[in-house]
Amino acid sequence: HDLYLIQHVNRVKAAMAAGETIVLWNLDSIYESLYDVLNQRYVIRTSGGRTRRSLRLAIGARSQLCPVEDGFRLIVVVEKDHAYQDLDLPLLNRFEKYLVDPERLLTARQLDAVAQLDEWMLTVAGEVGGAAADIGSSFVGAHSGTASSLVLALAEESDRQGDHKQRTGSSGDDAERDEDTTYFKVLNRARQRLAALASPFALMHSPRLREVVASEDLEHHASLKALIQWLDTSHGADLVTVLTRTPLLVVDGPWRSVRLSEVPSEAHMISLL
Questions:
Q1: Which residues does residue 63 pair with via DSSP β-bridges, in sequence order?
Q2: φ, ψ dihedrals at 51, nearest 5°
């Protein structure tokens, strides 16, 4: 633990000395070491007509004054719920706070695509379980931010592939048609990606969902045996996670089933693979 702490504190120290910006993510364990940094308790010394600023970094009982060059910035990225529930208020008060979510990064057209996807997922959920159903019951792992995150990721993917590049000298009408084409491509790709998260029960009971799923994709969702046979014949991935809400039947073959409740750690899981 000490070595891990020292490594990350040294990275902060190097950024301070170089006047660089450093981003901390999922590093709650080092905030205590940055107490004086976050409080901006500068030690100012003048030598030879030059003023130098230093800040104290600490690891346990040991501490050291470290030089700080102009331009040094410290950015901490945390999940909103984690910040509100787990981080101390005095720590949060030392930062300018900005809420960043996918919706704030989307264009008006992309927000419209998000609304279309949310409506589509709710329609599928309604076909599967009635008015009281939620999208998480039909699309494994889906939540209120799934559509916006997916549209943002697919829009960036389209840009990398050149879908959104306008032709040199194209007219306004051509540019608008290009934007429409990209919009529908992103929307169709998003529905296909979401369909890959759909539960077998949803695939069986939602006509709207089956419209975007190829018939051959439905076959290997029928049972664990069908999935394994499909992986064997299609040379699928070596590591596959199967999510199910029903007990697994015993299937003959060179594989085994493991209950997650029986796996105490990630290392134990890796040893089983």
A1: 58
A2: -95, 130
pLDDT tens digits for range 70-116: 999 999 999 888 888 898 888 888 899 988 888 888 888 899 999 99
First-residue to last-residue Cα distance in the chain = 27
Q: How confident is the model at residue 255 (pLDDT cuts 50, 70, 90)?
A: low
Residue in 162, 167, 158, 145 with CA at minimum distance from that of residue 185: 158
**Would you state the structure tokens that stand for residue 219, as one six-digit string?**
């076959």
Partners of 44 in beta bridges: 53
CA distances from 36 to 54, 65, 82, 131, 134 (A): 10, 10, 23, 54, 47
Whole-model pTM: value is 0.58
- CB-CB contact of 141 with 147 (8 Å): no
- Put residue 130 in one of left, alpha, beta given phi > 0 → left and psi -120 to 50 → alpha: left
Strand order through the sheet with 50-59 = 43-47, 50-59, 62-68
Quick one: 182 exposed, middle or buried, by C-beta within 10 A (0-12, 13-18, 19+)? buried
The closest alpha carbon to 194, from 101, 115, 124, 107, belongs to 124
